[in-house]
């Protein structure tokens, strides 16, 4: 069971940085996301014409971060994650698309190609609990 503090952090934020790697050449991209608690997954939109979109197709293994930006060391919080990404399809897609559009209504105005990261590992750092305090979840 994933720690409630991780869930709260993931629900509160909305921008992730996702990292891919193809042919030993790493790449990062920032995307708006919505967290699906029941699935323990992150959903975002991107086009397959983007570099990261093309790399998902070659290798679905991804890593990423979600961070609270602050200059106050005692308030630093953030998540590092890894998982497998896939293009959203099937019976869950309507529910997920509604959740994404609810969070980002502007997505209604564009063609949205939704992707889902099935999380396999999450490391949450929260300096409010003590300097460098980590809470780790993994499958």
Question: Could you explain the architecture of this structure?
Answer:
The chain has 139 residues and is α+β, with helices and mostly antiparallel strands. It has a single domain, classed as Pnp Oxidase, Chain A (Roll). It is built from three helices and seven strands; from the N terminus they run αβββαββαββ. It has helices spanning 4-12, 51-58, 93-103; strands at residues 15-22, 25-36, 41-45, 61-67, 77-87, 114-126, 134-138. Strands 1-2-3-6-5-4 form a six-stranded antiparallel beta barrel.
Tag the structure with descriptive keywords.
3 helices, Pnp Oxidase, Chain A, 7 strands, alpha+beta, 139 residues
Strand content: 35-45%
End-to-end CA span: 9 Å
The CATH architecture:
Roll
The helix content is 10-25%
Provide a quick synopsis of the model.
This protein has helices at 4-12, 51-58, 93-103, and strands at residues 15-22, 25-36, 41-45, 61-67, 77-87, 114-126, 134-138. The chain is α+β, with helices and mostly antiparallel strands and 139 residues long. The protein has one domain (4-138): Electron Transport, Fmn-binding Protein, Chain A (Pnp Oxidase, Chain A, Roll), CATH 2.30.110.
């Amino acid at each position: 069971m994933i720690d409630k503090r991780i869930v709260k952090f993931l629900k509160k934020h909305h921008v992730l940085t996702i990292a891919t790697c193809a042919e030993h050449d790493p790449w990062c991209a920032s995307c708006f996301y919505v967290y699906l608690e029941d699935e323990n997954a992150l959903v975002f939109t991107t086009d397959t014409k983007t570099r990261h979109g093309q790399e998902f197709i070659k290798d679905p293994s991804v890593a990423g971060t979600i961070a609270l930006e602050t200059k106050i060391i005692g308030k630093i919080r953030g998540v590092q994650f890894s998982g497998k990404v896939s293009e959203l399809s099937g019976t869950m897609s309507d529910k997920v698309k509604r959740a994404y559009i609810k969070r980002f209504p502007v997505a209604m105005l564009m063609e949205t190609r939704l992707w889902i990261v099935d999380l396999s590992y999450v490391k949450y750092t929260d300096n409010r609990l003590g300097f460098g305090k980590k809470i780790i979840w993994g499958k």
